[in-house]
Every structure is written in C-alpha cells, then in structure tokens.
Amino acid sequence: FGQRIVILDSTVSTQQDAMRLAEEGAPEGTVVLAEEQTAGRGRLGRKWFSPRGKGVWMSIVLRPTQPLGFTPQLTLLTGVAVCRAIRRLTGVEAGIKWPNDLLIHGRKVSGILLESATEDQRVRYCIAGIGIDVNLNTDDYPEELTQLGTSLKIEAEREIDRTELIAAVLEEMEQLCRLYAEQGFQPIAMLWEALSVTINRSVRAHTGQGIAVEGTAVGLDPSGALVVETDQGERIQVISGDIQL
Ligand code: BTN
C-alpha cells in the first residue's frame, strides 16, 4: 500500500480520481490524496465536508478476489484500520459505530465510503474512501455539523501530523488485508467487535430499504452484517443502512 501516491491540491472527490486510476489498471494499494475536495461524497448520498489542509481526504484502490457479497467485510476492515491508526498515533480512544463511523465522545471524527465496480456478479475493484477530521478547530465546522463532528486536534488537544497519520493508516490497511487473505474474516470481525461502540447497545436500524428494526446489537455474522436481537428474541441481520444508538 502506498507504493504509488497521487497528491492533488484540489479535486472534486478523490473517489472519482481513484476510480479513474483503477479503470486504467492501477494496482491494489494505489492512493489518491487531496488537500481539499469541492464535492466530497459521504455514504447514503450525503456530502462530506472537506476543508483545505485540515483533514485526510484519501481514496485507496482495492482489488479483492472474493465474490461480490464480501465487500461489506472490506468496509469493516477499513474501519478497523483507521481506528487502530488513530488510537496508535493520538492515544485518543476512537470507537467504531456500525458500519464504520469513527466516534470520539459520541461525535464523528472519520467516515468511510466503500464503492465497488462490478461486472457479471464479479468485483472489478473497490475504492475505499477515508475522510478523517484531523486539524479542524471548533469554529471551522459549519453550524449543522458543530454538534455532530469533532476532530483529532480538538480531542487530543494538539496538532496531529497528517503525514504520520496517513502512513499509519496505510500500514494498518496492509497488515489487515494480509491477515484477511490468510485467515479470512473471523479475526477481522473480532478486532472490529473489540473496537466497536455498537455491540451490546440498544439500536434502531434503518436498512437501505427503509425498514426499521429495534433491538440490541449482538455481534457480526460471518458475512459482516450486524445482528440485532429484538425484544421478542428474534435475530435480524442488518446489511446496509444506518443505526441510531
Ligand atoms: C461517510 O461517513 O459518509 C463517508 C465519508 C467518506 C469521505 C471520504 S473523504 C475521501 C473520499 N472522497 C470522497 O468524496 N469521500 C471519501
């Protein structure tokens, strides 16, 4: 990972740039970074606030060999990698909210967007998009985000070196992808559950189809879906969407 890194001053979205490189045959581990994004993308069609020089706005080309249904596992793997890198570098105990929002003191510090290009039920490539609010100050946030977002600088009470953080994320990604290739998803799921702030909490889940489920999050199933147990003892798998804790 990081053998080839493209650094841009300003771009629309590093997801688009990485996709273009992947289409041109860029190998796994190719990275695109930008100082600012003019239309950063979030999950579920949301926007991602990406101000100049204050964060890590990064996309990584992945070339998984597993069939299509396995991509949620890569989303969770990426969340573990970023969470470990943040903890190692800053000492701040970030936790993962399913599927892969990273929270500190209940506020979001990082988000991950995994997009896949497929053909005949096969994955051609995935782009792991990682946004980390690194050196934003409280007054950098637009009003609608002040209650929701936080940065590593606010939480660690010091400037964080973005280059060191990027290096740590790439190291963690490489290690976890190796573990995943050698031992499958189970060890990744264990790491995810240990870093998660979702397990054993009561949650309300909204699936992509707009169906609401209420219950206790009990763990991940082998595919990477979140298992929610309702008060009636029924176990429901949540594959996509969002949860409220
Ligand atoms: C989310 O929490 O909704 C996911 C946010 C992902 C943001 C990153 S920033 C780098 C990459 N480029 C984008 O346009 N989005 C991802």
Automatic annotation (TrEMBL):
GO molecular function: ATP binding; biotin--[biotin carboxyl-carrier protein] ligase activity; DNA binding; transferase activity
Domain BPL/LPL catalytic: from-to ranges: 1-181
Signal sequence residues: none
Enzyme category, top tier: ligase
Catalytic activity entry: biotin + L-lysyl-[protein] + ATP = N(6)-biotinyl-L-lysyl-[protein] + AMP + diphosphate + H(+)
EC number assigned by the record: 6.3.4.15
One GO CC term, this protein: cytoplasm
Keywords of this entry: ATP-binding, Biotin, DNA-binding, Ligase, Nucleotide-binding, Repressor, Transcription, Transcription regulation
Binding residue positions for biotin: 37, 41-43, 108
GO biological process: protein lipoylation; regulation of DNA-templated transcription
Top-level taxonomic group: Bacteria
Protein purpose: Acts both as a biotin--[acetyl-CoA-carboxylase] ligase and a repressor.
Entry's family note: Belongs to the biotin--protein ligase family.
Protein's recorded name: Bifunctional ligase/repressor BirA
Parent-record interval covered: 80 to 324 of 324
